[in-house]
């Protein structure tokens, strides 16, 4: 059943509920007044009997009304949660190196801003069938790198939250050494964490995603002293709204310098469990502590949870934030080989227990954002400024424009 999401429908439901409650209250008051009648014996007993009958009828009507009111309020709460969740999805889209805007030159841009929700899906590595990156960005150990998140493609405005709708949770950055960053499969790579932030303060409660919003979607970290070579960099937000939602993008890097470290690694998928404390959590209970999922960061220390207010003043100079994305290669960057397509992970298959497992061949199924050539799955992106992917939606859905930058199959 399709839910009417319009503000007018919500007001109509509330109005009906209030009218029903007011009518019951008025009849209760009238009955109370009539019960006090003592003007004459015969009239009193006749009305007393009538009042008793009407009280019984009123009680029955109240019992019938109560579930209806509960259902109305539940519908409103459910509708509000859907609207908040749908309006708050986001993607990591750009990168900065030592204050120089790299744009989206080396990022494998996701097909849509919808989250990955399965910790066992290969999509949790680098998102669902991302667009191929234009090239590889150059960094050195010790460089300051910032990844940049926004809700809509090409929207770099600091006036809009990077990720909204109370998607509270941690921000994390992983890296994986690979032979060729332009062709490496994230689900097959060996990852180590280089930075993380969870719950910087519990008094008042203040999450890493709120720090992200206060800094125009930027999360900044330092490249550790690692061995030179090509790497994938994975930026991730875990938004805890009615269950964990994973928002990630992979960037293609060439690390220079003379570092020698090769940190211990984990697999993604594999590093997270659905019941891990930092994933299976009710953030609305205002936790005093939070266990960030995944391994300990290499070469850095995660900030402890403060019991005093965390500064909300932006550390990123928002006055320098550009309004557009560069269309040329950043300094020192290399272009991807011609006809290079972003690697796609094996499509997940459903096991008897209801979990997802990778299929035997990554080429045996199309990416999960499409079911056939030119056919976009429900909730997938189908249009918008700068979009060049498929525009035909699966049966039962229509390509709906949400704004000039983003259209979605709904």
From TrEMBL:
GO annotations of cellular component type: extracellular region
GO terms classed as biological process: cellulose catabolic process
EC assignment: 1.14.99.56
The reaction(s) this protein catalyses: [(1->4)-beta-D-glucosyl]n+m + reduced acceptor + O2 = 4-dehydro-beta-D-glucosyl-[(1->4)-beta-D-glucosyl]n-1 + [(1->4)-beta-D-glucosyl]m + acceptor + H2O
Broad class of enzyme this protein falls into: oxidoreductase
Stretches with biased composition (Low complexity): 322-365
InterPro entries on file: AA9 (IPR049892), AA9_LPMO (IPR005103), CBD (IPR000254), CBD_sf (IPR035971)
PROSITE patterns (alphabetical): CBM1_1 (PS00562), CBM1_2 (PS51164)
Pfam families: AA9, CBM_1
Basic and acidic residues bias: start-end ranges: 1-15
Region span, Disordered: 1-25, 321-365
Localization, UniProt: Secreted
Family listed: Belongs to the polysaccharide monooxygenase AA9 family.
Recorded domain comment: Has a modular structure: an endo-beta-1,4-glucanase catalytic module at the N-terminus, a linker rich in serines and threonines, and a C-terminal carbohydrate-binding module (CBM).
Task of the protein: Lytic polysaccharide monooxygenase (LMPO) that depolymerizes crystalline and amorphous polysaccharides via the oxidation of scissile alpha- or beta-(1-4)-glycosidic bonds, yielding C1 and/or C4 oxidation products. Catalysis by LPMOs requires the reduction of the active-site copper from Cu(II) to Cu(I) by a reducing agent and H(2)O(2) or O(2) as a cosubstrate.
Protein name: AA9 family lytic polysaccharide monooxygenase
Species for this entry: Sanghuangporus baumii
Lineage, uppermost ranks: Eukaryota, Fungi, Dikarya, Basidiomycota, Agaricomycotina
């Amino acid at each position: 059943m399709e839910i009417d999401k319009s503000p007018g429908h919500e007001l109509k439901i509330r109005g009906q509920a209030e009218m029903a409650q007011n009518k019951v209250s008025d009849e209760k008051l009238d009955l109370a007044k009539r019960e006090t009648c003592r003007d004459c014996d015969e009239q009193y007993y006749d009305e007393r009997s009538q009042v008793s009958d009407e009280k019984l009828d009123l009680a029955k009507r109240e019992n019938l009304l109560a579930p209806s009111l509960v259902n109305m309020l539940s519908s409103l709460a459910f509708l509000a949660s859907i609207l908040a969740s749908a309006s708050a999805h986001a993607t990591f889209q750009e990168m900065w190196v030592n204050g120089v805007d790299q744009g989206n030159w080396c990022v494998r841009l996701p097909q849509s801003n919808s989250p990955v929700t399965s910790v066992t899906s290969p999509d949790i590595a680098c998102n669902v069938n991302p667009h191929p990156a234009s090239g590889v960005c150059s960094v050195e150990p010790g460089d300051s790198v910032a990844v940049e998140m926004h809700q809509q493609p090409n929207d770099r405005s600091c006036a809009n939250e990077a990720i909204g709708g109370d998607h509270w949770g941690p921000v994390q950055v992983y890296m994986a050494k690979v032979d060729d960053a332009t062709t490496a499969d994230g689900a097959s790579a060996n990852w180590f964490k280089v930075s993380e932030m969870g719950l910087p303060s519990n008094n008042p409660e203040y999450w890493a995603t709120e720090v992200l919003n206060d800094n125009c979607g930027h999360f900044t970290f330092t490249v550790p002293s690692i061995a030179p070579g090509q790497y994938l960099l994975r930026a991730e937000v875990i938004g805890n709204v009615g269950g964990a939602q994973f928002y990630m993008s992979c960037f293609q890097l060439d690390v220079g310098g003379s570092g020698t470290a090769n940190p211990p690694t984990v697999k993604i998928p594999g590093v997270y469990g659905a019941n891990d404390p930092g994933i299976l959590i009710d953030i609305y209970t205002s936790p005093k502590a939070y266990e960030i999922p995944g391994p300990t960061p290499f070469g850095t220390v995660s900030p402890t949870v403060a019991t005093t207010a965390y500064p909300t003043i932006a550390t990123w100079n928002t006055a320098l934030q550009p309004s557009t994305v560069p269309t040329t290669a950043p300094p020192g960057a290399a272009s991807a080989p011609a006809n290079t397509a972003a690697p796609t992970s094996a499509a997940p298959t459903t096991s008897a227990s209801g979990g997802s497992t990778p299929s035997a061949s990554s080429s045996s199924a199309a990416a999960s954002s499409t079911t056939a050539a030119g056919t976009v799955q429900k909730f997938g992106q189908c249009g918008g400024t700068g979009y060049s992917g498929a525009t035909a939606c699966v049966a039962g859905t229509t390509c709906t424009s949400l704004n000039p930058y983003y259209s979605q199959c709904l």
